[in-house]
Amino acid sequence: MRPHFVLSLALLIGAAGGLEAPPLRLGTRGSPLALAQAYMTRDLLMSQFPEELGAEGAIELCIMKTQGDMILDKALSEIGGKGLFTKELDVALLGDQVDICVHSMKDVPTWLPAKTVLPSMLEREDTRDVFISPKASSLSELPDGSVIGSASLRRQAQILAKNPTLECVNFRGNVQTRLRKLDEGVVDATLLAYAGLKRMDMEDEATQIIEWDEILPAVAQGAIGLQCRDDDERSLRYIDKLNHKATFDAVACERAFLAALDGNCKTPIAGQATIQDGQIFFRGLVAKPDGSEIYRVERTGPLADAVKIGNDAGEQVKADAGIEFFEWLQAQEPKLAVAQ
């Protein structure tokens, strides 16, 4: 039998249902939080498509280590920013090593590689930050001169705006590593995303849940996005079923704000959108890393204009702060001291 005839016969059998579909490959980082989010995605896919994806082995997790996971002694602002958590997953997706990438949306740059799309987001978790400390019951009660571990210039700027005597030091690694360092007394306190703690059933670790008026969360915080190749009809069909439209619209508004500001990890930017009665409510800010200047914006409008609202808010902040402010930010080398 000739090889091309064997191939044709195999294709005919497969089309008739005689061959099983290959496993659906989910690409994910290997941190405990990333794995929790990947398993959540897997379980949702299994429940939505029990006949196709419910069997053991129908979904395969492909775990990857990114540059952002490996370089922990420097702040993200020093080593290239958010793309460090997605580049390896992008390469695997374009190389057909995975079918779907599971992302924490606040780690995803506002641009996507050509031939990929991010059309689906799971229902968002609580977006607030939490304060964790064995020495104080709230951020405002920390004694002057206390040391806070955080890899986020956004958090640093808002913390120092409230109390410039506090010291922020680079504090990276997974949640468990940061909590261990806190227990060892490396720092006096830290701030983490409440969503991550909740997804790992660790919300009891929070000392205080911080409201938006005190610390405005990061753009897209608490949201999980699903990315695939733009011509992969099988994956597109699966992840479309998981899309939570309210989350998708709110995050689209926030990411439009970030894109308008050309935001990166050298620029302290925060932005959050909520949806109520067909209206979208947006709050955003941009600041100097030391908290000495903060520009805030609020916008409200119809949900259909979510992206426009985010973009307009970004343009307003740019006008309020002035071009010199952003030129100054980009010229800086913002560095956080390293927690030992």
TrEMBL record:
Tetrapolymerization of the monopyrrole PBG into the hydroxymethylbilane pre-uroporphyrinogen in several discrete steps. InterPro entries: HemC, Porphobilin_deaminase_cofac_BS, Porphobilin_deaminase_N, Porphobilinogen_deaminase_C, Porphobilinogen_deaminase_C_sf. The keyword Signal applies. Belongs to the HMBS family. The keyword Membrane does not apply. The lineage of its organism: Eukaryota, Sar, Stramenopiles, Ochrophyta, Pelagophyceae. It is an enzyme of class 2 (transferase). GO terms for molecular function: hydroxymethylbilane synthase activity. One of its GO terms (cellular component) is cytoplasm. GO terms for biological process: heme biosynthetic process. Residues 250-318 form the Porphobilinogen deaminase C-terminal domain. Residues 24-234 form the Porphobilinogen deaminase N-terminal domain. Its cofactor is dipyrromethane. It comes from the Eukaryota. Keywords: Porphyrin biosynthesis, Signal, Transferase. PROSITE patterns: PORPHOBILINOGEN_DEAM (PS00533). NCBIfam families: hemC. Residues 1-18 form the signal peptide. Pathway: Porphyrin-containing compound metabolism; protoporphyrin-IX biosynthesis; coproporphyrinogen-III from 5-aminolevulinate: step 2/4. It holds the Pfam family Porphobil_deamC. Its EC number is 2.5.1.61. This is hydroxymethylbilane synthase.
